[in-house]
Amino acid sequence: MTTQQTDTGMQARVVRKVALRLIPFLGLAYFLNYVDRTNIGFAKLTMSADLGLTETMFGLASGLFFIGYLLFEVPSNIALHRFGARRWIARILVTWGIVAAAMAFVPNATTLYVLRILLGIAEAGFFPGIMLYLTFWFPRSVRVRLTGLFMIALPASSAFGAPVAGAILQYADGFLGLAGWRVMFLVLGVPAVLLGVAAWFYLTDRPKDADWLAPDERRWLDDTMAAEQQATEATGKHRVRDSLRDPRVWALGLVYFGVTYGLYALSFFLPTIVAGFAESFDTSFSILENGLIVAVPFAVGAVAMVFWSRHSDRTGERVWHVALPALLGAVSIPVALYMESPLATMAVITVTAIGVFCALPVFWYLPSTFLAGAGAAAGIALVNTLGNSSGFGAPYITGFLLDATGNSRAGLWVVGVMMLVAGLTVLALRGRLRAADTDRVRA
Predict the structure, then answer these.
(1) pTM for this structure?
(2) Which CATH number fits domain 22-203+235-442: 1.10.10.410, 1.20.1250.20, 2.60.40.1180, 1.10.240.10?
(3) Which of 216, 264, 276 lies closest to 6 in space, CA to CA?
(4) Could you count the other beta carbons within 10 Å of the beta carbon of residue 209?
(5) DSSP readout, 388-402?
(6) The dihedral sign for the CA sequence 227, 1, 314, 303
(7) Distance from first CA to last CA of the chain, Å, rounded?
(8) What distance in Å separates the CA atoms of residue 212 and residue 217, rounded to the nearest whole number?
(9) Helical pair 140-151 and 287-315, crossing angle rounded to 10 deg
(10) In the chain, where are the structural domains located?
(11) What is the pLDDT of residue 408?
């Protein structure tokens, strides 16, 4: 057997072991992360009347999460790099679970605003921390595919979370003397605390510490990841100051802003859009039926995400694998406004969801082509910070336009424009990103 065959066999074996160990656990954590971030979209169906929220006030409550989230994102990711993923991810899970469960007891809109800000502070650093953590464990040749498997949790959180949230709202109303939306916040917040305790004992910081790998497997993985890290450091940015000044980081933040603008607009307002079918098409659905309908675009998006990320790894192409889905979302979302039935509208929105979710896992390959070490921790966090500022803008602007116009058309036109900007921006970066990747491979 040749050295190349031996190395290929070792990679297949080690990657499989690491993936089975980390991806399901991290995927479950991300599932809970996104559920606790966006379940306010379903709570709104009954919470708004209880707390006296207008559409604009609800959009503000949804978006305030991102104030604390954005302020603490970069410091949190640098802390993860310094103190270790195991400790920091466990801390994040426990604190956000406590705040998410506390939202069950808000007495008024002001308290809701405060807790949404605190939830953002508690969650800050989780997603970019996981993206950084995956660069410690998976070689570049398989990273997009495995990132895609991890990120299935994102559409799955809505595909499964929406029906669950709808069922709780409809059938658990009055449990423990609480309104259904309060029960939902409580039931969906506690699991994050439990998973945080488990993370402290289950996760491993680096390959050299992985006693669940055989000694030769541990040595091979540690050497492989160290070699990739050295190659990136030789050609890219590894100092915090340099990465934060790099125009490519800021441009990728703009790309991520456009893609996630579509994601958050759908996540926070799709239940409202479906409820609006009653007026638009003279039909109505129960809260549970609303949840099941909302789940469809996210479920289809999850399947498409897996195949698209595998295709990107197989071909080695990255930029067009981000640009094409973004442009698909940009074109499809305005079309949904002019469909003449609920079925046709949801079919087009499903196409938009495919565009959003296919772009995301491939996108996160791009920063690692020119960032390394502490610079990667800061740069990835900054990209995530810039992109997730859409999480404040999308709900607030969509809610404001919904109040101002009485329908969702204007808000969805904005979604289309933002995704168009994302697609065009990543294409404009194509040459610089390809050059960085080529230099890294040579090194």
Answers:
(1) 0.73
(2) 1.20.1250.20
(3) 216
(4) 13
(5) HTHHHHHHHHHHHHH
(6) negative
(7) 27
(8) 10
(9) 170
(10) 22-203+235-442
(11) 67
